[in-house]
Amino acid sequence: MTPPPEDLASEDAKVPAPASPDALRDAILSVAAGDADSFAGLYDATSARVHGLVLRVLRDPAQAEEVTQEVYLEVFRRAAGFDPARGSALAWILTLAHRRAVDRVRSSQSQSDRDVAYESRANTQEPDPTGEAALATLEAQRVRTALEQLSERQAEAIRLAYLDGLTQTQVADRLGIPLGTAKTRLRDGLLALRRIVSAPRQRKEE
Fold it and tell me: Is the pTM of this model over 0.70?
């Protein structure tokens, strides 16, 4: 039987130990409230494990980098939906990562043996992949519209990473800035995007 995403990530001895479960839980709740510093800490504490899990599924370093970035955009968009009573913060993030990685395999390896193998490992309660693909298209459209409301520097970095699929290192090289500066722009840009993209939904709910 295939171990759950959290167990898969913990098998890699090279992945650093995560922050405490309580710290990660509090970080996600703070992200849901719009705290940029908490997102940076959450990213630093979990990104190595997320990337390791995604890489195991995709077996392609370039795609793994891209999907990892998509996972954290999804964490931003869905942070308010995290329920500590239903599981740990790390398990929640790794489940998002596993599903997104499997979706990438499905879209690029449709009807192949590899697709069938990964599909059998997916969560049986996953939404229909066709519906998720449609939602992903809508989300991409919202992101492109939201980019127009970011600062020029943040928008440029997000376009290169999220729309063009460059890694953080490639973004830094393309913009001629230090890697740390590129990471900061991406994190701040993702936070701003989350606020902009979620604003229409919040108004509808009200």
Answer: no
